[in-house]
Amino acid sequence: MSEQVSYRDGALHVEQVPFARIAKEVGTPAFVYSSAGMTARYRALETALEGLPVSIYYAIKANSNLAVIKLFGDLGAGVDVVSGGELARGLRAGVPADKIVFAGVGKTEEEIAFALESGIHQFNVESEPELRLLNRVAASKGVVAPAAIRVNPDVDAKTHAKITTGRKENKFGIDIARATEMFELAATLDNVSLTSMSVHIGSQLMDVTPYRDAYARLRGATLALRQAGHVVDHLDLGGGIGVSYDGSAPPDIADYADIVKETVGDLDCRLSIEPGRYLVGNEGYFLTKVLFVKHGAERRFVIVDGAMNDLIRPTLYEAHHDIVTVAEAAAGEAGSLADIVGPICESGDYLARGRIFGDVGEGALIVLKSAGAYGAVMSSNYNSRPLAPEVMVEGDSFRTVRRRQTFDEMLALEEGLA
Ligand SMILES: Cc1ncc(COP(=O)(O)O)c(C=O)c1O
Ligand SMILES: N[C@@H](CCCC[NH3+])C(=O)O
């Protein structure tokens, strides 16, 4: 029996990930990433967008491990951050401040001050009060803050309701009809420079058509602003390109690039995009070990040492992740119905439900695919489970890029306070 799993996804693949060795040396559960896969994704996107004046800002919320940020930074990417903590990560990973954009509906005064002191490239402002606060903090520091307004184009991204961000009922952005009003307001504020707009309509878009509608509206707003005498020299087109979790066809990035070209390619604007999931989603795995197999009255439970605190996507979005066993490489192909569940005290603690799954026994290693995005970053200490380690596979070798949290580290913040 092989101790390795082969994985192919179009041109991008990890030939052999040494899961058994990783389990032995690092333990389980663990997140495992492919540097070759992430690099290939970045290059593919760059190639698809060739000829367009586009910069790539990696949205580090998808996977903010320092080694992952550094990998994209070294490839030339900037980063998109949504909190002071993410800004600290971007800087710590060596990304130059002038390649960092700061998005988010609820930036605090302290976060704005930190970003201004760091000298970031751009604030993507999501409300009028935020624009005024940005002006005030910038004035107190004697600087002019580079700003974009994030507009809400009221376009349905046709994705999961919890990750749709461009509809009127969503908290994100400023109604696109108010763009001119915002530019007029900014013109009266001495410490912001507003010459840019951003848009982000949602995550995990499997159909690129909604981008066409959103970018067409952005184009319309740009032309109207210019007509009114304002300068618009940069458009941030957001992230959201989906990846396949089940082997179905992913969106074609060439189609996405065509849409960019056709809608905003001729506006004489610098452009940027903020992909997160696309760059890392398929290039990570969640490795876990079978603790017990229990035959319930109605179904088989495969109880593993990974849980919803490690990978919450199945619980939170009913998300599907393909699963393979390390020994067989294709446990999903034959077998019987099973729930793959974790040790947490909630019935919602499952990694897969009602899955046709092979006959695994205690100690078997199983791998959830496509766990590179919104995996480790969304993990928690629920049930006082220490955070799982993260491992980067580089060529034939691998290295730990986040250690497994110890009990002492988990308890440190409360030390002496009880
Ligand atoms: C403003 C912004 N940019 C970029 C992203 C990255 O999204 P994704 O990982 O779907 O590419 C998000 C998350 O949805 C976001 O809110
Ligand atoms: N956490 C979500 C995506 C959120 C996108 C961030 N705006 C997921 O796992 O699919």
From TrEMBL:
InterPro entries: Ala_racemase/Decarboxylase_C, DAP_deCOOHase_LysA, De-COase2_CS, De-COase2_N, Orn/DAP/Arg_de-COase, PLP-binding_barrel. GO terms for molecular function: diaminopimelate decarboxylase activity; pyridoxal phosphate binding. GO terms for biological process: lysine biosynthetic process via diaminopimelate. Pyridoxal 5'-phosphate binds at residues 240, 274-277, 374. Keywords: Amino-acid biosynthesis, Decarboxylase, Lyase, Lysine biosynthesis, Pyridoxal phosphate. Pfam families: Orn_Arg_deC_N. It comes from the Bacteria. The keyword Lyase applies. It catalyses: meso-2,6-diaminopimelate + H(+) = L-lysine + CO2. Substrate binds at residues 277, 313, 317, 346, 374. The keyword Signal does not apply. SUPFAM superfamilies: Alanine racemase C-terminal domain-like (SSF50621), PLP-binding barrel (SSF51419). Its EC number is 4.1.1.20. The modification N6-(pyridoxal phosphate)lysine is found at residue 61. Its cofactor is pyridoxal 5'-phosphate. Pathway: Amino-acid biosynthesis; L-lysine biosynthesis via DAP pathway; L-lysine from DL-2,6-diaminopimelate: step 1/1. The active site is at 345 (proton donor). Residues 39-280 form the Orn/DAP/Arg decarboxylase 2 N-terminal domain. PANTHER family: DIAMINOPIMELATE DECARBOXYLASE, GROUP IV DECARBOXYLASE. NCBIfam families: lysA. Homodimer. Belongs to the Orn/Lys/Arg decarboxylase class-II family. LysA subfamily. This is Diaminopimelate decarboxylase. It comes from Nisaea acidiphila.
